[in-house]
Specification:
The complex is a heterodimer of chains A (about 120) and B (about 110). By secondary structure, chain A is mostly beta strands. Chain A is built from no helices and eleven strands. In chain A, about 0% of the residues lie in helices and about 50% in strands. In chain A, strands 2, 4, 5, 6, 9, 10 and 11 form a seven-stranded mixed sheet that branches. In chain A, strands 1-3-8-7 form a four-stranded antiparallel sheet, with no helix packed on it. Chain A is globular, with a radius of gyration of 13 Å. With about 110 residues, chain B is mostly beta strands. The termini of chain B are far apart. The relative contact order of chain B is 0.33. Classes of the chains: A mainly beta (about 120), B mainly beta (about 110). At the A-B interface, strand 4, strand 5 and strand 10 of A face strand 5, strand 9 and strand 10 of B.
Chain lengths: ~120, ~110
């Protein structure tokens, strides 16, 4: 079974530029998550989708971050304009549903450096 | 909201046993997860507890006490490859955040020869 796929793996941009990350969840997984992990810290939830609807985006900095999952499968996370503090790993994860007990599986992450 | 605490770093010797503690304070609770994360890699699932008690999986065991807001991950017969960060995560009850996981900062474990 293929895992969660993410691209690009690495990206370096200048501050105020924009960047987009793509995620393809495990086949059949209805729930998709984007987490931000700053070096030395645990992952922080940015947004959770159930199919193509947003369940929770309370921690997404909406002035610069946006995410979509138009057809309920792939998802894109965009940052525009980027700030230095956005340097982090962006982890996409998926689970079969959002219900308790279902394991969340992570992709390898997209590493962003803002200079 | 949730407050999840775990030690920042631990060191242990190959072949030994190590216990990584996690305490949490949550407004809602629907399970506690442990993930392992090697440097530069994605977190991988280790264990899940929703009821009090011990769950054993080979060399790894995880314990939960809901009344104390406490869990630990026990690693036996440590191997060099166990050097990694161990993340404690609590699942919300779904009332606000759709059962997403909230993570602690992770415990960096170094296994020495």
């Amino acid at each position: 079974e293929a895992g969660v796929a993410q691209s690009p793996r690495y990206k370096i941009i200048e501050k105020r530029q924009s960047v987009a990350f793509w995620c393809n969840p495990i086949s059949g997984h209805a729930t998709l998550y984007w987490y931000q992990q700053i070096l030395g810290q645990g992952p922080k939830l940015l947004i959770q989708f159930q199919n193509n609807g947003v369940v929770d985006d309370s921690q997404l900095p909406k002035d610069r971050f946006s995410a979509e999952r138009l057809k309920g499968v792939d998802s894109t996370l965009k940052i525009q304009p980027a700030k230095l503090e956005d340097s982090a790993v962006y982890l996409c994860a998926s689970s079969s549903t959002g219900a308790a007990g279902n394991t969340i599986y992570f992709g390898e992450g997209s590493w962003l450096t803002v200079v | 909201g949730q407050n999840i605490d775990q030690p920042t770093e631990m060191t242990a010797t190959e072949g030994a046993i190590v216990q990584i503690n996690c305490t949490y304070q949550t407004s809602g609770f629907n399970g506690l997860f442990w993930y392992q994360q090697h440097a530069g890699e994605a977190p991988t699932f280790l264990s899940y507890n929703v009821l009090d008690g011990l769950e054993e999986k080979g060399r790894f065991s995880s314990f939960l006490s809901r009344s104390k807001g406490y869990s630990y991950l026990l690693l036996k017969e440590l191997q060099m490859k166990d050097s990694a960060s161990y993340l404690c995560a609590v699942r919300d009850d779904g009332s606000n955040s759709g059962y997403a996981l909230n993570f602690g900062k992770g415990t960096s474990l170094l296994v020495t020869p």
